[in-house]
Amino acid sequence: MAAATATTATFAVTKLIASSAPTLKQSFSFLSPHRKPTSLFSSSLPHRRHQSLKFSAVPKISATISVGDKLPDSTLSYFDSSDELHTVSVSDLTSNKKTILVAVPGAFTPTCSQKHLPGFVEKAAELKAKGVDTIACISVNDAFVMKKWKEDLKIGDEVLLLSDGNGDFTKAIGCELDLSDKPVGLGVRSRRYAMYVDDGVVKILNLEDGGAFNVSSAEDLLKEI
Q1: What is the model's pTM?
Q2: Out of 112, 127, 143, 195, which one is annotated catalytic?
Q3: For residue 42, which phi and psi values (nearest 5 degrees)?
């Protein structure tokens, strides 16, 4: 009798395992080394009634300054061709004039030296033919560095290179770029942008995401002025 009971129990367990095998196989199949990993949002996950999640594909790029705003005043510096140090206020630079302000994260850095600033030097005549009075490049570098950078790139009077040494203007318009985590020791600099200003008021602002170079070229501005 006991043997018959044991046989019956063994048969029942065997039948239960057999009937559950597909489910067990499916449940633990993700452990297989041959299984393709599944994305968190993959359509291959079991279908359940969840509210869909929406993510913005384009990061929001913003600053304190925006189109239609009047630029805050600040003092910038530069050396002239006679090695005399001068200061100029943003107000003097832009009042009753059409001015282009180009900002770069740093003098002598690759994109700034090879593409961004040289583009405005090359297109200076075309921009001035559209009524632009002054093109100025601003960087959070000291005036000595900006002078040397200008000489290195052999820039004449096409573009005025200005030092925002303490970053006062950059902070005032909300365009700081914190690069303190970079091993080259850049600290806090300016985000890259190209700005068209008419009598101190921002008319066009092509602001990049950090130091990217996608919308702030001379060609981009030429199309918009």
Answers
A1: 0.72
A2: 112
A3: -70, 145
